[in-house]
Design brief:
- Strand 3, helix 8 and strand 4 form a beta-alpha-beta unit.
- This protein has one domain: Metal-dependent hydrolases (TIM Barrel), CATH 3.20.20.140.
- Helix 1 packs across helix 15, helix 5 packs parallel to helix 7 and helix 8 packs parallel to helix 9.
- It has about 325 residues and is α/β, with parallel strands linked by helices.
- It is built from 17 helices and eight strands.
- The two termini are about 15 Å apart.
- The structure holds adenine and zinc ion.
- The site of adenine has 11 residues, from helix 4.
Length: about 325
């Protein structure tokens, strides 16, 4: 398997579904908690990791939001983002489009600007020093009200030039896309691109809602589209990209087993699917691990891996010429490895 690991390592990758708060490794959590004089209810990083056993999305979200509570200063958000960038640079990730959850922090009294600027400065440094290009997506929390999302939109406006799009995440079931119709429309009017989590735990109808009501440019997860043939047809016809996260799906029991992950079925149907890590500090794997574990479990060929990696750039919000450049680079390197 070393051969496959090397192949995956060497190819340039784009990550399109990544929550920066989900990259908070226990060691850094302890360090930041200590300097902010805050307590976390664990005595060691190993103890924290042992607590990461989830039966569903909500059990994960409860721990994820608790972890994020120790982030207070611009430096904290910078350190969090910089640690992620260094990690993915070592995995040959060349482009990232990352989510941040402003309300998780503004709700606790941390200013929008503190969060944004800390993250943004690290992204700028990453582009300069690590050669990783980026886009930034602020994600509305769907368990909160549309009014609160509107407040977040307002807070973002002075920094519009630093933010590329809006997303929708958190507890899916019971919080359908329709709840956010108006704020998505207003976000589009401000020039933001749109994406939303849908069909992770929620039904296929939520994917229809994300397409027809929210008018998304990209679909996060979307696994449950397979339950609806007409929906698959629509996604294929529009070449709507899906940002899949296999290890996340496994850890959150969205799927029972990676061996039955329906990725090949999705590719054969013509869906534009990409692989991503979602919340790597919590789900046991960054980009390379997501590719490798999936490839081993369902016996992906090198051609299929190449297609998935090219899809990552194709589905990105990079300029057309940059997409072409990276897809050609993947082809070139794949022949050499
Ligand atoms: N926030 C962070 N990770 C998430 C996920 N997988 N689904 C919904 N909201 C999230
Ligand atoms: Zn996600």
């Amino acid at each position: 398997m070393k051969d496959l690991a090397t192949f995956i390592q060497k190819l340039p990758k784009a990550e399109l579904h990544l929550h920066i708060e989900g990259t908070f490794e226990p060691e850094l959590m302890f360090e930041i908690a200590k300097r902010n004089n805050l307590k976390i209810p664990f005595s060691s990083a190993d103890e924290v990791k042992a607590a990461y056993q989830f039966n569903n999305l909500q059990e994960f979200l409860d721990i994820y939001y608790a972890g994020a509570n120790v982030l207070l200063t611009e430096q904290d958000f910078f350190d969090l983002t910089w640690a992620y960038l260094k990690k993915v640079a070592s995995q040959n990730v060349k482009h990232v489009e990352i989510f941040f959850d402003p309300q998780t922090h503004t709700e606790r009294g941390v200013a929008f600007q503190t969060v944004l600027i800390g993250i943004y400065k690290a992204l700028e440094k990453g582009e300069k020093e690590l050669g990783i290009t980026f886009r930034l997506i602020m994600s509305y929390l769907r368990h909160m009200s549309e009014e609160s999302a509107f407040e977040t939109l307002q807070q973002s406006l002075p920094f519009k030039d630093l933010i590329d799009g809006v997303g929708l995440d958190s507890s899916e079931v019971g919080n359908p896309p329709e709840k956010f119709r108006n704020v998505f429309e207003a976000s589009a009017e401000e020039g933001y691109k749109l994406c939303a989590h849908a069909g992770e735990e929620g039904p296929a109808e939520y994917i229809w809602g994300a397409l027809d009501v929210l008018k998304i440019d990209r679909l996060d997860h979307g696994n449950r589209c397979l339950e609806d043939e007409k929906l698959v047809e629509r996604l294929v016809q529009e070449q709507m990209a899906l940002t899949l996260c296999p290890l996340s799906n496994l850890e959150l029991k969205v799927i029972q087993d990676l061996n039955t992950y329906p990725l090949k079925k999705m590719m054969e149907a013509g869906l534009l699917v990409t692989l991503n890590s979602d919340d790597p500090a919590y789900f046991g794997g960054y980009m390379n691990e997501n590719f490798l574990e999936t490839a081993k479990a369902i016996d992906l060929s090198k051609e299929e891996i190449v297609t998935l990696m090219k899809n990552g750039f194709e589905a990105s919000w990079l300029r057309a010429e940059d997409k072409e450049k990276w897809k050609n680079e993947i082809e070139r390197i794949a022949k050499e490895v």
